[in-house]
Amino acid sequence: MMIRPEDLQIIKPDKALENKINSVKIKEKILFKKQSDFHEIKVVENSFGRFIKFKDTYQAGVINSSCYKGNVPYINYFLIPYLMNKNIEKILFIGLGTGLILQQYNELFEKLKRIDTVDIEEYIFPIAQKYFDFEINEKMNFYLQDALVFLKNSKTKYDLIVVDVAGDYGIDERFLSDEYLNLISKNLKKTGIFVSNLPSSRDIFNPKNKLILNLIEKYKNYFKNIDIYSGETSNKIYYKVFFDIDKPVFDITNLILISSNKKYKISDDLSKIDFVDMKPYLNDLID
Predict the structure, then answer these.
(1) Tell me, which fold does domain 72-282 have in CATH?
(2) Which of 92, 111, 125, 206 is a good FRET partner for 20, with 20 to 30 A between their CA atoms?
């Protein structure tokens, strides 16, 4: 079963703004298109940048506009673990995307020894290399595999696990299960950090947001400390870049859960992350 982001909306959008968005026609040049076992996957280029799409849904990419340049902005929350622990040596990344965040990890973490990346989409690795200048180095290992199968068979303990697995229809409910969280715990060091990207209503703590509230409670069974970041900065950038609208329209956001059994402090030394202004993302901490 897939959990669709649109089904999590609680507040109806402003009709005028919704109509404005629906009226925007974005011309795209298709650079790559294939039907895999799981998706219709495309690489497209338009006036805002270059992106990976599953069917009609933007999944990853690089924005190049007058008001923002860089990762699809929700990806920038994945840089927060660097401000928690600069001594990370082993990383597991589930869901490759463009590979840009892996290259940023490689530059940031000076003690990094290994990055293992798992993706079930057969075309994603060559796409990252050919269309997004992803460069492989000796620290990187790649696995074309179902993530839960990989987690069951893995013998490695990681300092950091990042999971970003939404598809064109939403997120597979397997990635909300106790089995999944048990496997994450099995593969994470006692001091390790787990980052998970989830869809949610923007009104996160509304009692009607049952699925997410129940999931947060479930996470508490596995992790002593959970930092919750709403994707407000990412939302603002998205609506401004693509539609020239200065506020979010739909009641959907990325919810970034950063969990650990160790209490980490966020460093205020942002000097090495000079390719993106992290302060707005850090201000999205809501707990």
Answers:
(1) Rossmann fold (3.40.50)
(2) 206
